[in-house]
Amino acid sequence: MDKVLENRLVILIGMEHYTPLGVIRCLGENGIETIFIGIKYKAKVASASKYVKTTYLVNDDQEALDLLLEKYGDVAEKTGLKPFVQFSDDSTVELFENHHEELKDKFIFFNAGGNHQIRKYLDKFEILECAKRHGVQILPTEVVKCGELPKHAEYPVITKAISPNTGAWKGDVNICYSEDELKEAFKRIKSPLVLIQKFVEKKTEMTIEGYSVNHGKDMFAAIQCSYLYTIKGYYSPYHIDKPIQDQELKKKLAAMIAEIGFEGVFDAEFLVGPDDQLYFLEINFRNTTWSYSSAVAGYPLAYLWCKSMLTGEIPEVKDFEPFTSMVEPIDYAKRVEEGRCTLPEWLKDFKAAKCTYYYDPNDLEPWQVLVDNWEKLK
Questions:
Q1: Which range has the worst mean pLDDT, 65-69, 198-202, 301-305?
Q2: Over the stretch 304-348, which tens digit does the pLDDT of each residue have?
Q3: What is the pLDDT of residue 2?
Q4: What is the Cα–Cα distance from 109 to 56, expressed in whole angstroms?
Q5: pLDDT tier at 4 (50, 70, 90 boundaries)?
Q6: 302: which residues sit within 8 A by CB, 6+ positions away?
Q7: Is the pLDDT of residue 55 over 90?
Q8: Residue 298 contacts by C-beta under 8 Å, 6 or more apart in sequence?
Q9: CA-based end-to-end distance of the chain
Q10: Residues 6 or more apart from 308 whose CB is under 8 A from it?
Q11: How far is CA 295 from the centre of its chain?
């Protein structure tokens, strides 16, 4: 562990599955044992890691916050060292933003200065408008009340909840090829406000993984991840990871982060059209699954963010050889069980993947949890 982080507690709050597992490994591989406040889910995956120092399992975000304050709310006062708190769920990010004034002197956590900028830009329309201001291409978009037809729709369209914390999240995603199909989709959509966007048959999706400090003025962008196959209305659990190719896009993204004033780990998502045109989709203001790919590339974001918050320094980006990453059970279900590839082909890809999100020969217990709960987790 770097001396700058000696005696610092690092606490992770997130739903108990493979995304926080990657964050825990990212920290553990760099000498930090994580205190994990897990929100109960299908199986005890992340808490099975050997890198967890202490685990608490709770029912929801509010219970997680209450426990955090009860157990660690006086650490900064007693030791003079604020614990770091990181997140892997949008709802937790928003909850902590709502309590920024109460928490800012007790913890260091993902934030945008307490002015509700994160909540504002979790709104898909607002973040798309921010992208436009900084010259990033977006798809034609409207926001309507659920049941209200858009005025300028170019069918086919895709529907999305206006925010990840409203409606049915991915359950509100529908691809509609006509007005009648959109009317039918409205009957199922839970979000009161719906983003209607022109649907483009994507060639792939690409994400940029990074973090920011100094109220968003300094951004570190580590890698880009590109999906190796596409699934309508779903992410691909198998991707290739490379150094960032488009430096102009990186500068535009940095300008967006600076406008928002965000400090924390993030992931920016882009759709790649059939003509290779990039279209901005959204920013996740938290650790995502793919951030562990950055750690495998040599850039452990959760760890580096903590260091940079204390020192103000941003590391240099160096080239690395591209590699593949795989969410094993989901990729198996999507490719082998749905007939996209044979079992021998899948096993070959699994063995070749440099980053796997469950299997780690140095941290095997989460893999055993997966094996014991395969049907539940795939």
A1: 198-202
A2: 999 999 999 999 988 999 999 999 999 999 999 999 999 999 999
A3: 74
A4: 19
A5: confident
A6: 10, 12, 23, 26, 27, 86, 265, 287, 291, 295
A7: yes
A8: 318, 320
A9: 34
A10: 211, 213, 218, 220, 314, 315
A11: 14
Long-range contacts of 35-39, Cβ-Cβ distance < 8 Å, separation of 24 or more: 35/9, 35/10, 35/11, 35/72, 35/83, 36/11, 36/12, 37/11, 37/12, 37/13, 37/64, 37/67, 37/68, 38/14, 39/13, 39/14, 39/15, 39/64, 39/89
Q: 129-156 burial, b if ≥16 CB within 10 A, otherwise e?
A: ebbeebebebbebbbbebeeebeebeee
Radius of gyration of the chain (CA): 20
Token code pair at residue 151: 């005025």
Q: SS in 3 state form for the chain? A: CCHHHCCCCEEEEEECCHHHHHHHHHHHCCCCCEEEEEECCCCCCHHHCCCEEEEEEECCHHHHHHHHHHHHCCHHHHHCCCCEEEECCHHHHHHHHHCHHHHCCCCEECECCCCCHHHHHHCHHHHHHHHHHCCCCCCCEEEEECCCCCCCCCCCEEEEECCCCCCCHHHHCEEECCHHHHHHHHCCCCCCEEEEEECCCCCEEEEEEEEEEHHHCEEEEEEEEEECCCECCECCCEEEEECCCCHHHHHHHHHHHHHHCCEEEEEEEEEECCCCCEEEEEEECCCCCCHHHHHHCCCCHHHHHHHHHHHCCCCCCCCCCCEEEECHHHHHHHHHHCCCCCHHHHHHHHHHCCEECCCCCCCCHHHHHHHHCHHHHC
The span from the CA of 96 to the CA of 58, in Å, is 16
Residue 232's pLDDT band (cuts 50, 70, 90): confident
Strand 10-15 to 84-87 pairing: parallel
Question: What's the length of the chain?
Answer: 378
CA distance 356 to 347: 13
